[in-house]
């Protein structure tokens, strides 16, 4: 049972790291700000989500589980709000290219 | 073991790289962004050193609030037309600056490496006497009991800082509303954050304040979160800040240090020593001081970001 949980944790976190790596690659390689933001928020949402899901079996208690989920939810809200804000700013700074 | 070492090496290299970036940055905004990232990495380093209280403070105040303060300062500088890309100092000046920094680095490195093992300190005495404080968190014990005077002075300094900032107001806006009023936004991400986060933030702040007695946390971290929540609502134009002439506002800022001082003086009268807490009531007294101080510090931190009363338009 604990072996299964550990395997699940490792798989989910590896998948999460994959999304972070892809997001970082996108941040470095994508040509314009909007697509770079897209890559970053994807890493935040899915990458962190998978890491959190992977950590859930290791949380040990309901309180810790809820804390992990709260961290994910707060990052979701923050990056969902920061993304459009940055996009608006860049559109103002560099009009339609 | 190996993984821990790898993390430590990454953290050290990352914070050195970011520190270099802060110095090398030619634009003020870039330097501030890197400084905030550096602060967050430092917080992780404190976590690795098992200093969770310091990590929380570094993240909340060192990176978060200082970052916002610096960004606000940059904006004010730019408005005054005094921001320019930093001109590189001359060759001789560069050499001397480099030499000076190298000397300090070597001296600091030597001081750290020359520390005897185990490092001298009062940790053992704190642990032995912690029971007398009725607290479970040794950091809070040091801050509120063993070195209570330092904490009192720290809190008082914040009041002085707010007075200093307010004193910068021009005559026309003297006693006016702190900072430039932000236009109210009713939709979009800013309004969403300003409506969604404060209830959560207030709960988190009170939690951090409450567990501070027995676990990492305390008034400064809680106050930074409360200040951030207040600023969020202010940025969205959803609150009117009372003018600096308002007595309730002034009382809020002064209440914490005033109460702390009053309790200290009461200790002098009852127990015979300044800041001596009444026997058997140590923890309740400390908690009351912590809660009132948190409110005062939160108000002071938020007002520091808002700045002096002015008529300028917000960014």
From TrEMBL, chain A:
Pfam families: PhaG_MnhG_YufB. The chain crosses the membrane at residues 6-31, 69-89. Keywords: Membrane, Transmembrane, Transmembrane helix. GO terms for molecular function: sodium:proton antiporter activity. This is Multicomponent Na+:H+ antiporter subunit G. It comes from Neoroseomonas alkaliterrae.
TrEMBL record, chain B:
The chain crosses the membrane at residues 29-47, 54-73, 93-113, 152-169, 189-210, 222-241, 253-275, 287-308. It comes from the Bacteria. Keywords: Cell membrane, Membrane, Transmembrane, Transmembrane helix. It is a multi-pass membrane protein. It is found in: Cell membrane. The keyword Ribosomal protein does not apply. Its main location: membrane. Residues 192-307 form the Na+/H+ antiporter MnhB subunit-related protein domain. Belongs to the CPA3 antiporters (TC 2.A.63) subunit B family. This is Multisubunit Na+/H+ antiporter MnhB subunit.
């Amino acid at each position: 049972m604990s072996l299964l949980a550990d395997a699940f944790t490792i798989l989910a976190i590896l998948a999460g790291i994959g999304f972070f790596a892809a997001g970082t690659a996108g941040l470095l390689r994508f040509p314009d700000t909007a697509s770079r933001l897209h890559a970053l928020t994807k890493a935040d949402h899915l990458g962190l989500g998978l890491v959190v899901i992977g950590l859930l079996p290791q949380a040990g208690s309901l309180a810790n589980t809820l804390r992990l989920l709260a961290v994910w939810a707060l990052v979701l809200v923050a990056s969902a709000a920061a993304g459009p804000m940055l996009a608006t700013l860049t559109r103002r700074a560099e009009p339609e290219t | 073991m190996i993984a821990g070492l790898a993390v430590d090496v990454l953290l050290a290299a990352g914070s050195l790289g970011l520190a270099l970036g802060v110095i090398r940055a030619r634009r003020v905004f870039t330097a501030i962004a890197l400084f905030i990232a550096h602060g967050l990495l430092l917080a992780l380093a404190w976590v690795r050193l098992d200093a969770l209280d310091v990590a929380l403070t570094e993240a909340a105040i060192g990176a978060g609030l200082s970052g916002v303060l610096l960004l606000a300062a940059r904006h004010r500088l730019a408005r005054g037309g005094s921001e320019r890309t930093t001109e590189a100092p001359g060759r001789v000046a560069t050499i001397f600056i480099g030499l000076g920094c190298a000397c300090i680095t070597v001296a600091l490195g030597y001081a750290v490496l020359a520390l005897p093992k185990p490092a001298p300190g009062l940790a053992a005495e704190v642990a032995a006497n912690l029971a007398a404080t009725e607290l479970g968190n040794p950091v809070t014990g040091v801050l509120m009991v063993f070195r209570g005077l330092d904490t009192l002075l720290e809190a008082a300094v914040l009041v002085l800082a707010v007075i200093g900032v307010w004193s910068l107001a021009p005559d026309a806006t003297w006693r006016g509303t702190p900072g430039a009023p932000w236009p109210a936004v009713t939709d979009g991400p800013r309004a969403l954050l300003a409506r969604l986060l404060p209830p959560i933030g207030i709960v988190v702040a009170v939690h951090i304040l409450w567990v501070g007695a027995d676990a990492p946390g305390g008034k400064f971290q809680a106050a930074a979160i409360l200040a951030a929540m207040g600023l969020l609502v202010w940025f969205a134009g959803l609150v009117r800040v009372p003018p600096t002439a308002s007595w309730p506002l002034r009382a809020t800022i002064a209440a914490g240090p005033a109460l702390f001082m009053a309790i200290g003086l009461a200790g002098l009268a009852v127990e015979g020593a300044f800041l001596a807490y009444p026997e058997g009531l140590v923890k309740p007294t400390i908690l009351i001081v912590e809660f009132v101080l948190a409110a005062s510090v939160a108000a002071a931190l938020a007002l520091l970001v808002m700045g002096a009363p002015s008529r300028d338009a917000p960014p």
